[in-house]
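can u do me a favor
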């Protein structure tokens, strides 16, 4: 069995420690928060975020970053996207050259427009970086509910190794070389999920949300292709799959924040009530900037960014989306003359 270090003991890092522990690996789960380490060691479960999902005996919880990083077959970066760069800086001296790292957070850095794998490559040069994404609520994974994800890395052998580490009879893992496509799908769906929560909060129906999700994946795909992703990825697990689960589930912190905004709260009030990092908020501005940089039309992203940061009313944003000029649904299709 393998030795694995997980950086980040929030809901997702903890859920993955349960998966890897059940697979028989020796797991060290690290948190920078002393109170979180104490909670997990005392109760052997994350009673605040994943109640009823105990840690296997072979999962050790620690605040020692050096021990977590050294002599590991695989490192898992499971910190929320706003903290990936700072955590990488903190851990750099303890991570050897050639170390295989898989990032499982989803987001885009607003100040640089870097993906999270770009950040890790910059802060941890000489290491092997992979990503893991897909429709995977931590609350369900921690309870061994069947889940399917995709791991992306340029080297097939690394993807297949990570696949073998994580995969079991309830956690199925596919492989892909399309790292940028996987990251963009996983990051941008959070922005669309905020918008989905808004339309639910406003009291609109299934028709409205279906339209939002369908046009949302069209926006994600347009930007993804412009940035070098592959169309197949956006119709797969980290595209349509992740979009569906994040837009339709009450487990989704992005949907929940959007729902509260639709009910009249502002962005800060919604984030405070959700009490977790709402990664779509951090990715929205970056997505809007990327759309402008690459000359890609992303009206849903543009409107939700205005709602979040420019005090635009949610009702006005929906009205503006529906009053846009007429369009052909797919401009690549040809008419019969």
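np, heres the sequence
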């Amino acid at each position: 069995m393998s030795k694995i270090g997980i950086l980040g003991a929030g809901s997702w890092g903890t859920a993955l420690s349960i998966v890897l522990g059940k697979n028989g690996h020796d797991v060290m789960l690290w948190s920078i928060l002393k109170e979180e380490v104490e909670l997990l060691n005392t109760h052997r479960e994350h009673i605040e975020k994943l109640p009823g999902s105990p840690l296997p005996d072979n999962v050790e919880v620690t605040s020692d970053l050096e021990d977590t990083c050294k002599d590991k077959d695989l490192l898992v970066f499971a910190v929320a996207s706003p903290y990936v760069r700072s955590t990488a800086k903190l851990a750099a001296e303890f991570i050897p050259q050639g170390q295989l790292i898989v990032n499982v957070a989803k987001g885009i850095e607003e100040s640089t427009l870097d993906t999270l794998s770009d950040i890790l490559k910059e802060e941890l040069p000489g290491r092997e970086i992979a990503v893991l994404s897909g429709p995977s609520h931590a609350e369900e994974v921690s309870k061994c509910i069947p889940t399917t994800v995709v791991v992306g890395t340029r080297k097939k052998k690394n993807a297949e190794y990570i696949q073998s580490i994580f995969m079991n009879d309830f956690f199925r893992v596919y492989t892909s070389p399309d790292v940028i496509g996987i990251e963009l799908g996983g990051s941008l769906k959070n922005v669309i999920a905020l918008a989905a929560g808004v339309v639910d909060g406003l009291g609109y129906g299934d028709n409205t949300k279906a339209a939002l999700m369908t046009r949302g994946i069209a926006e994600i795909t347009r930007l993804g292709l412009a940035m070098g992703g592959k169309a197949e990825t956006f119709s797969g697990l980290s595209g349509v799959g992740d979009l569906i689960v994040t837009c339709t589930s009450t487990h989704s912190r992005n949907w929940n924040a959007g729902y509260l905004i639709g009910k009249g709260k502002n962005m800060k009030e919604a984030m405070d009530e959700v009490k977790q990092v709402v990664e779509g908020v951090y990715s929205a501005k970056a997505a809007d900037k990327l759309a402008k940089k690459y000359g890609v039309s992303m009206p849903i992203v543009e409107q939700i960014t205005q709602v979040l940061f420019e005090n635009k009313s949610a009702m006005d944003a929906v009205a503006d989306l529906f009053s846009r000029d007429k369009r052909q649904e797919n401009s690549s299709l040809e008419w019969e003359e």
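The longest strand covers residues 128-133. hope that helps!!
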